[in-house]
């Protein structure tokens, strides 16, 4: 008989319970049970009598929920005081209906960090504590002795305005209204009565609305008689609005994501510096808001995928490498649908910028510029940017001017913008500018500047042209094909006016507003062409000029 002996393994186990106590943080504000309290109190009520107790609720615990109450305004003469820990308002000074008939107190509840307010309206009730008083102690008159049964004196009693207009009932809770209810719709009718007569009993109504951000309105309706002094009664109308799904979802913030060219794919796109999540919100109530449905149209499926997480967030993924030199931006229409009844679908555009990397070498370039002086005088003038063609547009280049050109010219080393100094002498100047980006080999670009003396007749017989959507710098800077818009304009005039290119003299460029440019030029063949002829030519060929200067 054979036996196979296996080692005996004894498993030991035990159970422990861990009790976790969550410490409360003071992150909830106190909230009054109601926004308006209204009470009546007899004018002969004793000092110390409680008028009303207000209360607020705080969802925190312990010390964070301990509230203190105080009256912040409306307590004329210090007639009332308040128990700070209980919220009871009591009489601190004797009341007098004849001195003040109504108090509107603003009450504060605070937990030391957060606050809430409520209004307390105290109507002083008149008591019969004033004896009638005749205007005279004695009245004198005379009658004939045979008078029988006729009045001797007629005493007229004038009504004292001693009754406040009274509403019945004292409050009006209403059924909720849809928020898109038509203007002019009748909500309810409130009526007050006044026991006084004549003007003392005539009532004028007014309204004082108070609202909160959740669509609840407390309308305080005031009824004021026309006595002197006037007396006012009040009632409250409680009204709630039913949300209508009239807002579609929207992006929580304006996102400006940058997706770097040549980056490995697929890759999640960072929406900002700290997060890859796209957040969506809805201005309607929760019933007409989330959950949302988020997607991209099929047209964009080859390039991007939008993953809806079902909680109002989504993640955008780039599906392949991108080349900024082929496409600089993508405008992605994010289709968003809420859960309202009926649901609302909207589109928000998410702009994704393809970030530039220095993956192309810059080249040497040549540029020719004409500048004019008048009677040997000229201002320091910008000549535009040194031309060094490069498909990359985010490179940080450094520009260096040859020492021989520094006497008459200045160069911004970081932007490459060249300027001619004041009163530079007439003549032609050739400048050599070194261009470096720290990655590709350095190159040297050339700039030829011709300084011409501008004749008086060229000014007097010049024409002008106003262009919109362009600045002076845009007009003179070289494009990808090494020509500037100024070169295109001069070439167009040369071709259609049948004159030499050198006969067209553009001598003034003036920015007159946001992207608005005034161009002044003259044309000299055997003699100067009249401005009337040039303006007529421009009017006839307006569209052609526009297309020539803005070929794209």
UniProtKB/TrEMBL annotation:
Q: Name one GO cellular component term.
A: cell-cell junction
Pinpoint the Cadherin domain residues: 33-134, 149-251, 251-370
Extract one GO BP annotation from the record.
Answer: homophilic cell adhesion via plasma membrane adhesion molecules
Signal peptide bounds = 1-20
Q: Name one GO molecular function term.
A: calcium ion binding
One Pfam match, given by its short name, reads Ig_Shg
Q: Does the keyword Transmembrane apply?
A: yes
Q: Mind listing the UniProt keywords for this protein, alphabetically?
A: Calcium, Cell adhesion, Glycoprotein, Membrane, Repeat, Signal, Transmembrane, Transmembrane helix
Q: Any idea where this protein resides?
A: Membrane
UniProt-listed CDD domains: Cadherin_repeat (cd11304)
For whether the record's keyword set contains Nucleus, the answer is: no
Q: What is this protein called?
A: Cadherin domain-containing protein
Source taxonomy: Eukaryota, Metazoa, Chordata, Craniata, Vertebrata
